[in-house]
């Protein structure tokens, strides 16, 4: 597994460098996809992927959101949410994950960014049910080979 | 040490828990000592023995007679309880029909213990309906702040009273549970709706020693009782998730309040005629992308098939309620809890879902539909967010929702006044350590925010504006605003101002698992790091053990006065509805 992450790290270098340039967050071939553009439906009883999201599957996209507190120290992914998740949902009985979360597999080891700071994440959009093999965490939407940049 | 009869004093000491702290040494009996039980109310009877007991030596009597003779059947002996290396006796779904004092004595031949229950009857029915409104986490300070912000104050006198202020009955309520002086919303609501104490995180059960969260001895709720024996209607209305602790205490029985899916299953099985709130993901089959269920149950489809009008917006809710054919109403208005008043109506941040109903309108809709049921109803309405926001030290949002609670009370009060046949009880379930201590005055000199805190005569009066006269200040962030503080808190930044950008998240978890101050607020001008005074494992402010202030009106409310126990609230409702009334035979 670590080898795979290592290889991903190399692949991820290019976008990471690109993103580090000021004012070029959404540059390159990455299409901007906003959280509110991902789904259609009333968001209470129905939620479906939008045509725009479906059309971007397999392409490099950039999505702005917030990094949720780490699920586990050893997790190879982090959770991106549309609004800050203030609490670790697994640590507080009242909290629960929002439905529109996105799982991000960074191309290289990710430093935790405080969950109050927005980040731009660039990665390959992957759609469909998936359970992370190590943590059993379930997701419907992912960004792989991803790099990100904090906006503050 | 063991507790042996006939050394009754010692036995009493055991059952009172005076010896708590040492290893379990004698029988534990559920319901617990000094339980008050309504005649006919179902409960599970359980005796836990300290070790493996010899069934030949086990003896359980009630008032000196074999328990089977009193309860109608013999309890089942379990030699080795699941996950526990000890024996128990269990008898589910019993009820006692004759009022009186019942002393239960259990022995395994070596040690014995006793508990005494009071089984009570009631007088005849005085009301058709009961409305129990729970202001989750609402303390006196919330109420005072809501009155100031909603009605205004000049020269020490208010320009008006809240709707709850001039209801005729009041009492202080003790909220402690079986396990602790401080209670959570689960066991507190459960005490109101069942008349039995429970423990933190539990609803509708006495928490036993086995690890299973669903096998604990159950007690019957008022909603279950009135449906079973009086053919009355039941309503569950909340602006939290429908499976959250308070509404769960209308129909779910579990030691663990976070068993959301199972709680939805149990609540729905009761088929309350009105069921409204948030938390849609646990009502949807796992095939739905929003679902958090692990099975294919689709309660939205099920509710429609069961004759409910299913609604998902404020407009749909009101239209369904106004339709005279609607007798069952089901509403899901958010995936999580509904957004609070300040966010929904004033600040409107991006996370607010459109078209969510306001709690007063939910109350209106519920009353309209439930009134169509000829045998009357029991309606629980929870104003949930005062608690949630106070946990997060977000006092402005908490007070706006306290005003909303009062607007809801106004709706209920109007209904009860017009009808004269409805008991209304409005009560918090527990408090927070919150106080209203003064004002923050931006115009005070200097950059140091602490020096802008007005205390005593320097507090003066706040300058909120309510130009449209709707009872809610148009903005929370005026130049002289109320300053509320909490007595127990995690590390956090005190920003001295309303959180207009979004709900306050005082802490984040660090890599060691401790909750530390959320650095996002460090940059707020004047923000000051406040060192927490509670364990670092706690992410938020916590409940207090202070008494809560209950307010009531309507027939049957005469019993409410002075200091009462939270289990007495059940008894007041049972008396008003005559649930234990047995007319004398001539």
Automatic annotation (TrEMBL), chain A:
This is DUF3299 domain-containing protein. Residues 1-25 form the signal peptide. Keywords: Signal. The keyword Signal applies. It comes from Azospirillum thermophilum. It comes from the Bacteria.
Automatic annotation (TrEMBL), chain B:
Pfam families: Alk_phosphatase. InterPro entries: Alkaline_phosphatase, Alkaline_phosphatase_core_sf. Binds 1 Mg(2+) ion. The active site is at residue 185. GO terms for molecular function: alkaline phosphatase activity; metal ion binding. Residues 1-26 form the signal peptide. Its cofactor is Mg(2+); Zn(2+). Zn(2+) binds at residues 136, 387, 391, 429-430, 543. Keywords: Magnesium, Metal-binding, Signal, Zinc. The keyword Coiled coil does not apply. Mg(2+) binds at residues 136, 244, 246, 382. Belongs to the alkaline phosphatase family. This is Alkaline phosphatase. The lineage of its organism: Bacteria, Pseudomonadati, Pseudomonadota, Alphaproteobacteria, Rhodospirillales.
